[in-house]
Write a sequence for this structure.
């Protein structure tokens, strides 16, 4: 007879997760990387963008491991962190203020927000953005984006690889000849890490981007040795933007918290956005700000518990 494992289903603006609470566990963990793809399958499993595993850690409220729906390491996940915060607040009664959660990037602090004692949202200190090519990682340097003729503003920009630009000609519609056709894509990738790599591309009409084909082409390109999340972004005003996302290891998702932070950083450096903005995703809105000191990015948004259940471990 197969062993049964309890789980909870959460989502942050439609970015959904299977949460496994092992804070009291004494047994050896199963092979999460093997289980995640089967569990996340939306036809034959529970269905999710990823799996969140909580383990005990004497120095913090919980240690979080993140697995994408393909079983790969998620590294960091802004929407997932908010789901964990809601779980700790409601199911584990951690209500003494700031939560501290250890992730692959380090310890992240989270402030649950409440109304009438009930959880409504969470504000997450996502830390400083990473702009160094080796740490993102991306196989490019300043020479790849024009050398040293222009003042260095800290943002790594890489021209869209020729083979991708050629493949995307049918819909990209970049430049002055975009007219009423195509997405109006700028053929430049802005590279940022928030504990996981992000490729930010600005365009006039992200709704016209064929994510299912364009996303994986850039996600798996040789420029990104650890693969990358891919975002197509329209600037709406000085304090708002709309984005669509292809997530590394998960595919098209309704929201990406770390991606929203990366978009704000790239756009703020270029003067496209202020340092405090609303980032709209298909699942809703995230509030993101990039503090002058100490340079941390702070993200706020909701998290929702959907249901609880049990699943067999073969």
């Amino acid at each position: 007879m197969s062993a049964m494992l309890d789980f909870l289903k959460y989502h942050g603006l439609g970015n959904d997760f299977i949460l496994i609470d092992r804070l009291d566990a004494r047994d050896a963990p199963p092979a999460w990387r093997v289980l995640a793809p089967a569990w996340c399958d939306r036809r034959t499993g529970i269905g999710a963008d990823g799996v969140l595993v909580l383990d005990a850690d004497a120095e913090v409220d919980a240690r979080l491991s993140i697995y994408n729906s393909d079983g790969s390491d998620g590294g960091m996940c802004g929407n997932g962190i908010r789901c964990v915060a809601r779980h700790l607040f409601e199911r584990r009664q951690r209500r003494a203020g700031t939560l501290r959660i250890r992730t692959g990037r380090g310890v992240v602090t989270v402030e649950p927000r409440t109304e009438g004692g009930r959880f409504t949202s969470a504000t997450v200190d996502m830390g400083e953005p990473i702009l160094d090519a080796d740490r993102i990682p991306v196989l490019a340097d300043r020479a790849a984006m024009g050398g040293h003729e222009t003042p260095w503003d800290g943002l790594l920009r890489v021209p869209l690889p020729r083979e991708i630009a050629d493949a995307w000609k049918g819909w990209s519609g970049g430049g002055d000849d975009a007219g009423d056709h195509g997405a109006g894509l700028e053929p430049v990738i802005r590279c940022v890490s928030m504990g996981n790599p992000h490729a930010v591309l600005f365009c006039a009409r992200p709704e016209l981007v064929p994510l299912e084909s364009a996303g994986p082409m850039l996600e798996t390109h040789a420029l990104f040795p650890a693969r990358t999340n891919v975002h197509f972004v329209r600037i709406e005003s000085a304090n708002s933007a709309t984005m669509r996302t292809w997530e590394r290891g998960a595919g098209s998702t309704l929201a990406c918290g770390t991606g929203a932070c990366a978009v704000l950083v790239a756009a703020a450096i270029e003067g496209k956005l202020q340092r405090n903005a609303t980032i709209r995703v298909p699942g809703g809105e995230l509030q993101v700000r990039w503090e002058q000191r100490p340079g941390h990015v702070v993200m706020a948004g909701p998290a929702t518990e959907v249901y609880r259940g049990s699943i067999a471990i073969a």
User: Anything to note?
Assistant: Residues 3-126+302-313 form a domain with the Diaminopimelate Epimerase; Chain A, domain 1 fold (CATH 3.10.310.10). The first helix runs from residue 32 to 40.
